Amino acid sequence: MLRTPTGGAGHGTATAEARPMSIGTVLIQLRDEFPEVTISKIRFLEAEGLIEPQRTPSGYRKFAPRDVERLAQVLRMQRDHYLPLKVIREHLDALARGEQPVLPSPGDRRDLADGVWETDPGAATAARIGRSELLAAAEVDEDRLAEWESYGLIVPAAEGGYDAEMVTVAKLVADLGRFGLEPRHLRAMRASADREAGLVEQLVAPLRRHRNPQTRAHAEATANELAELSVRLHAALVQSALRSRLH
Questions:
Q1: What is the pLDDT of residues 22-53, one digit of tens each?
Q2: At a CB cut-off of 8 Å and minimum separation 6, what does 159 contact?
Q3: Start and end of every HTH merR-type domain (predicted)?
Q4: What H or E segment, with its residue span, contains residue 21?
Q5: What percentage of the chain's residues is helix, strand, coil (to nearest 5)?
Q6: Domain count along the chain
């Protein structure tokens, strides 16, 4: 539960009379229910547009009670339903429009490509596609796919077939190929992705070893956020490097 500004126990809603709070005060209020939350996490959610605290003329964040409650909503949806930020934003936007969207249970899975929630126990398997489906999605032939696999750009799942992410990878590799970038040029990107994945794995390892099952489950959501930040950083670095070369 969230603490009220006077230090008593509340039910997730701060009093309307409470004065705006600093990010440090917000962190203290959230820590009881969300022990893993950090200032960096709050700033990240703000950068993603999920919360919009006011700013003082000097640039300091000031959180109203409604900001704290919204922040708690976001954290609960990540913790209890393992939802990506895009889905959380859509849910909160629907609530703001007066709709009553239904959140999935923790065992549900959402296919973001078509917006359908899958509740089948074998959803993880259903999310994989076969080789012919991947060829059709990427619009390439067998020889080209085999070449991508030889360079480690496309990797089959251990259980067979290909994960949904491989469809995205295949399409991007095909698009880059139209600009003359061959698989051998992209090996460095694959190696970099593997290193970043290893770093993320190290960072979430303490969460995965936690005794609390919810904390262990939260490791996946944390890993997804770290991946999003890593992608944004990579894009910013590439754009910055190009700008310095082209101007």
A1: 988 998 999 888 887 888 888 888 888 889 99
A2: 125, 128
A3: 37-94
A4: none
A5: 55, 5, 35
A6: 3
